[in-house]
């Protein structure tokens, strides 16, 4: 976590292509990774590369605004249900916590949206950490 506070020297590795490749590397389907990256592309376009990289490096387990809408999250779940369910199981094993506990902060949302948001916020942070190591 310290590297996020110090803005790692490797922040330049946070490119759209590297994000997508990193998500595939950790086991997300190419289609799911592409959907995540395409949603972040407009932020990249509007903020510019440096500001986007800074924002992404400081995201640290927070869900990007692009995925906070419950309907968007549910649509992603429906489209990528098998990979999201698989990732939820992996996260439960990794953290030793049920997905319900991991998403208590968003318990007011539909379960499909909660699972989708959990996977995105956790795996995106993981990829960012790998790329800035």
Explain this structure.
- The structure is a single chain.
- This protein is mainly α and 133 residues long.
- The chain has one domain (11-132).
- 69% of the residues lie in helices and 0% in strands.
- It is built from 8 helices and no strands.
- The protein has helices at 2-5, 16-25, 30-47, 49-57, 70-79, 81-95, 99-102, 111-132.
- It is globular and about 35 Å long.
- The model is unreliable at 1-7 (pLDDT under 50).
Q: Classify the oligomer.
A: single chain
The helix tally amounts to 8
Estimated share of beta-strand residues:
under 5%
Domains (count)? 1
Separation, N- and C-terminal Cα atoms: 11 Å
Helix content: 55-70%
Uncertain spans, ≥5 residues at pLDDT below 50? 1-7
Task: Provide a concise account of the structure shown.
The chain is mainly alpha-helical and 133 residues long. Helices cover 69% and strands 0% of the residues. The protein contains eight helices and no strands.
């Amino acid at each position: 976590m310290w590297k996020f506070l110090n803005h790692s020297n490797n922040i330049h590795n946070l490119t759209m292509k590297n994000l997508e490749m990193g998500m595939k590397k950790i086991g997300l389907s190419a289609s799911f990774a592409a959907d995540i990256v395409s949603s972040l592309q407009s932020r990249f376009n509007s903020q510019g590369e440096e500001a986007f990289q800074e924002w992404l490096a400081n995201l640290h387990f927070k869900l990007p605004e692009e995925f906070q809408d419950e309907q968007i999250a549910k649509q992603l779940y429906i489209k990528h249900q098998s990979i999201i369910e698989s990732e939820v199981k992996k996260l439960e094993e990794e953290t030793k916590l049920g997905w319900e506990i991991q998403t208590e902060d968003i318990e007011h949302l539909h379960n499909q949206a909660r699972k989708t948001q959990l996977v995105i916020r956790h795996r995106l942070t993981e990829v960012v950490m790998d790329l800035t190591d």
